[in-house]
Amino acid sequence: MKMISRKMLATTLTLAMVAPLAVACTKGEKADDKQERVLRIATPMMYGGEDQYFRQQFTEIFEFANPNIKIEIVSTMDERFRNGNIQPGEKMPDPMEKLKEIMQGDNPPDVVMVGYEQLPDIIESNLLTQLDPRITKDKFDTTGIVPAVMDGMKNAGGGKLYALAPTFNSSALIYNKKMFTDAGVDFPKDGMTWDETFDLSKRLVKGEGESRINGFSFNTQSQGGDLFYGLQMYTAPLQLKMFDDAGEKMTVDTDQWEKVWTKMAQMQKEKVFPEMMDPSKPMNRQYDQNNPFAYDDFMSGRLAMGIINYGQIQQLTNANKNAANFKGYTPIEWDVVTIPSHPEAKGVGGAIYMDGIMGINAKAQNPDDAWKFIKFINGEDWAKLKSHSSYNLVARSKYLKPKDGLEFHMEAFYNVTPAPMDNNTKIYRTNPNIYQVQEIGRTQFMSVLQGKTTAREALKQWQTQGDAMLKQMKENPNAPMNPMIQQAVPAG
């Protein structure tokens, strides 16, 4: 007997899994519904027309179940950007503006896929069809879609649904059970405020220097003292912005920004967060040969609580399962609870990313197949098949269960509401130098943490220096920024 190739075996298994989906998809289909048709899907992301990942992730099963529907993928991302062939100072076309253009062109796409931060733009431009009437007409059940996704989609559409997302990724607060037990402190729980979390952290700090155990960090992996970027999870639900919607004026010299920065400096002083790294000393623990997970504070036993992405869970469970193979690693007993929130934004988290957000173009040539496709990839059968992923979560809660026989509080990853979206996303897309404004803030924030200046003084500096940089960007958006601009602007 000839050996069956691995490729043939994999194909056979895939078809065996997909077959029930095909039956479910074609059940009730009209006998004359065999006409060959084209369904065009457009996206501003880096997928090409024959992108293998896109098809494997989103369209292959649908195409198998609907052989008469040919799917065309149209990317509005410039080929030069996708291939890395960009010349210094070259202005690239905005893929979102290109998407909006073709959505209203002579050969408009039927379905569009965008990022969560891009969704409000095309909704407000009246370019998407509202899905609620179709959902009601077809009695499409959305009750099983997790709050993290449904609330996010509705918030983007002002309470109405213009798109759905079949998968998402999220974060939760992970904690080391033994550290809490040893300290005689109760375990964290769902729905804690940030202040409650910080108070817990203070009770768990132990030791000094390299042997210190920290209570909390915005990132389980060693940040090198970069609290500034971790802090964005804290500020996002408060809707604190760096600059106005036009990208012309800084908005950081305010009482609310001062309150946050003062709070963070005080928490750093009270040892809520890991010690700031001394840049003059090498970060030896990142490369400890006796500890393969030295770069991760939680897995190295240096951190009691931290924000962890769902995709990191797999690494932790694998390490625990194979602890005997990792010299210097001790298995960790852990669990997760929801990300803390502010009293004024209860239950709102700042680390939810939805994947495969798709809506129907208001000028779709084939709106019925567009809805058929969106309904299919957001349905239960698709979720059941895709629920085996270790890195993304399916939007249907019925299929969100811990893998490999584990038991942990899975609901912590999805019983939250996404933070409101920043309306400045277009500025980030069209202005290649805008991130340098953020870097000014990082430098000033570090001065506050080090006690060199007050929060308000630092924010005034950021406001003044940032305004000067934004002015320079507006006058010549593609020119290199003057590195001396920060020194050239007078303080406060």
Explain how this protein is built.
The chain has 3 domains: 10-82 and 93-166 and 356-399, D-Maltodextrin-Binding Protein, domain 2, CATH 3.40.190; 170-225 and 274-349, Periplasmic binding protein-like II (D-Maltodextrin-Binding Protein, domain 2, 3-Layer(aba) Sandwich); 426-488, no CATH class. The protein contains 19 helices and 12 strands. It has helices spanning 6-26, 52-65, 79-82, 95-103, 119-124, 132-137, 147-156, 177-183, 194-202, 227-230, 232-235, 255-269, 310-321, 367-377, 380-386, 425-430, 435-449, 455-475, 485-488, and strands spanning 37-43, 69-75, 111-114, 167-176, 214-217, 303-309, 334-337, 348-349, 352-355, 357-360, 393-394, 417-418. The strands form 3 sheets. Strands 4, 5, 6, 7, 9 and 11 form a 6-stranded mixed β-sheet that branches. Strand 1 (37-43), helix 2 and strand 2 (69-75) form a beta-alpha-beta unit. Helix 1 (6-26) packs across helix 2 and helix 17 (435-449) packs antiparallel against helix 18. Mean pLDDT is 84; it is low at 1-17, 26-32 and 483-492. Residues 1-24 form the signal peptide. This is Extracellular solute-binding protein.
Determine and state the CATH class of the largest domain.
Alpha Beta
Shape: globular
Q: How many discrete structural domains? A: 3
Helix content: 25-40%
Question: Which architecture of the largest domain per CATH?
Answer: 3-Layer(aba) Sandwich
The name of the CATH superfamily of the largest domain reads: Periplasmic binding protein-like II
CA(first)-CA(last) distance = 82 Å
Family: Belongs to the bacterial solute-binding protein 1 family.
Keywords: Signal, Transport
Pfam family, one: SBP_bac_1
Protein name: Extracellular solute-binding protein
